[in-house]
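Hi there,

I know you've been waiting on this one. I reran it after we fixed the sequence typo, so this is the corrected version. Both the input and the resulting structure follow.
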Amino acid sequence: MLIGDFLDDIAPLQAVLAQAAGMGISGVLLQVLDPVEENFPFAGAVRFRAPQGGARQTRNAAGLRAAYLARLAERRTALADMGAS
């Protein structure tokens, strides 16, 4: 069982899953997200900080919402596809 938000670079996860599949190992992926990560309720000027350091600022966070949610949907589809193979 692998548990995480899986919002970082997906390549290392793909490599681990490919290696596990090659060894005949099966399991479960469980994506855990904060409601803020799922809904992106931000508006106006916001400074986003990454847990590893670094930050991104915007004056129009609401303008980023559609693109963020589209990328999140793409990530969920990629995770579902990886879990199905």
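Quick highlight: The two ends are 15 Å apart (CA to CA).

Best,
R. S.
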